[in-house]
Amino acid sequence: MAYFSRSVVLLILLVSLSPYCLSNPIQDIFHQCLSMDTTSLNQLPNLFVTPNNANFTSLLNSTAQNLRCIASYAAKPKLIFTPLHETHIQTAVICAKKLGIQLRFRSGGHDYEGLSYTSVMDPPYVVVDLAKLRGIDVNIKDNSVWVQAGATIGELYYRVAEKSKTHGVPAGLCTSLGVGGHITGGAYGSLMRKYGLAADNALDAKIIDANGRILDRKAMGEDVFWAIRGGGGGSFGVLVSWKLKLVPVPATVTTFNVPRTLEQGATKILYKWQQVAHTLDENLFIRVLIQTSQVPNTTQRTVTTTYNALFLGDAGRLQEIMKQSFPELGLTKEDCFEMSWLESVLFIAGYPRTVPTDVLLAGRPAFLNYFKAKSDFVVKPIPQNGIEGIWTRFLEEESPMMIWNPYGGMMANISESSIPFPHRNAIFKIQYVNSWMSPEKKAMDKHVDWVRKLVKPIPENGIEGIWKRFLEEESPMMIWNPYGGMMAKISESSIPFPHRNAIFKIQYVNSWMSPEKKAMDKHVDWVRKLYNYMTQYVSKFPRQAYVNYRDLDLGMNDKNGDDTSFVKASSWGTRYFKDNFNRLVKIKTEFDPDNFFKHEQSIPVLPLKGKSQRFKHPKWWKTHKKISVFSQSLWYITISLWKEDFPFTESKLYSWKTRYKIQAYHRTYPLESGNHLDKRKCFINRVYACNNANSKYLHTYIEGLESGFLMKTQITPLQCVLARDHYNGDNEDLRSRKG
């Protein structure tokens, strides 16, 4: 009732706003609207920070982890609003929707592309900073904890350990992550092989929808609760708090941090790690951080692989497991450190052992630089010569990094559809990161380009190619995280996070300290090169990515912010969520039909029935000669044709000129399973990738499908098109026409 009264009063007052107000600066009209919430009128002046305030820049930068996103050339908000209560957020949402103001919500500032506090879209925006909402209520009796969105993962771990030394939370490795956004992407950590993701262990949540209502799990419904547990932040509403399950941890755990360089046989050890990391005891998590370093007493650079581990048990049992399953690492008793689970959080995060645990209450990023990152999931081991190719690229760059995270265990036991996160069946995940310290855009472009080029095919292949690339860069890093264990036991659809059955995950990172744009371009280019190089060794159809490692290289919504396209969003949506993307789109369309919550890579809404979503051909359509036929990057499009709107005969459907005209008449609708052919109503133009370096054709199929449903399609930029008729079950080859 309180919400209803507040909403009615606000809406009446909003309607009374005179039109001339809309020509005033955003901060004025937004402040005027928020002032109508008389319950907090006295607090409001202290909750607004504009670019004219002396503390504007310091507040904007306070939790921003990536300096690239707050450089001088990056977009800045018109206003920062720092709510103290959930009611403040409700009012902000109601006002912003009425006034047509775009909102960005920041809990921890860890979005890799800075989408929680910056924007590359044209409309002006306001940042709602949730840092003051950081309440934590631990209930050991029922093994649960309520935590507000602005609290950090480090604070959460500390408060749980205050109440119990034998309880933990299966969430992130970086202690300054904001809880609100972290869990919306799935949230993996060192306990994921034993207990799965944080999103797998979410019991309830509170979300503010586009109408300003606060909804718990029961009120929002199971579909929306499924969507917010891995479907990415900023698409469905404002996550203000989570209720998480507490899991048992031993009073004493064991950790180790063992480095191995090229000179110490890093290639062979890493190759063996791929074979075993996802199949080890689910109590053992061993990730790999790959960086460049200096060979002692020389000017020569080398690549160092560091094995960073947590074992839920004592050192004696850990050594037994390692001797039996992974003797190549050469783990010794001196390498192992027994400690409490809370102390292990700091150890895994890279803090010295002398740092006290109360540093977790600081709530600020411990490491700041300019960086560009990407991610991959690996379903079969990378050969040794492929790893050597990575080393080549690492030695080209200044500060590159790869993080390889193992899977297996519980991750493989959970369905890909249990939550939106679908990446369950890989053996590990890769994160590509390149960092730098220069604020110049030239520096940024350089380093970002390095990351992007890492996936371009080169003569070398396999692990040895990785080493060579590492020596090109100043500060490269890779982190390899194993999967398996519980990750392999959960369905890909149990939550939106589908990446369950990988053997490991790779994170690519390149960092730098120069603010120059030239430096940025150089280091970003390196990351892209390494990412391109890795194409042949990682997941395909689609090439998967982790939504919490946001990457705008995969595509983005229109810059004007007026529309989101299912066709366009599929280019990144299927990579982040696989088949769960279709369900996310359907839920988004029902829950936020006006698409109020949106950003560069938000989940799109489907157009209303009868509203056409015009498709534009990709650039390669007319410039195919400039595109390498070896490229395996995919386009995802969906085209449905209503017979009554289709002015051409079926015989003309396959002609090349007609193909261009078809696009103006297609319509998109939700995906459903079990559809039957109804050729009286519609056609589906379904295109599959042929992904063959020697192929000269793009295979196109025509299928009949019951009216009003989507079909995911895949295209590779090859040089010609072969149309093949599969309509109504017939397999009659049609003539091939050059593109």
UniProtKB/TrEMBL annotation:
Entry keyword set: FAD, Flavoprotein, Glycoprotein, Signal
Name of the featured protein: Berberine/berberine-like protein
InterPro entries recorded: BBE (IPR012951), FAD-bd_PCMH (IPR016166), FAD-bd_PCMH-like_sf (IPR036318), FAD-bd_PCMH_sub1 (IPR016167), FAD-bd_PCMH_sub2 (IPR016169), Oxid_FAD_bind_N (IPR006094)
Signal peptide: 1-23
A Pfam family: FAD_binding_4
A single MF term (Gene Ontology): oxidoreductase activity
Domain annotation FAD-binding PCMH-type: ranges: 73-249
Needed cofactors: FAD
UniProt similarity note: Belongs to the oxygen-dependent FAD-linked oxidoreductase family.
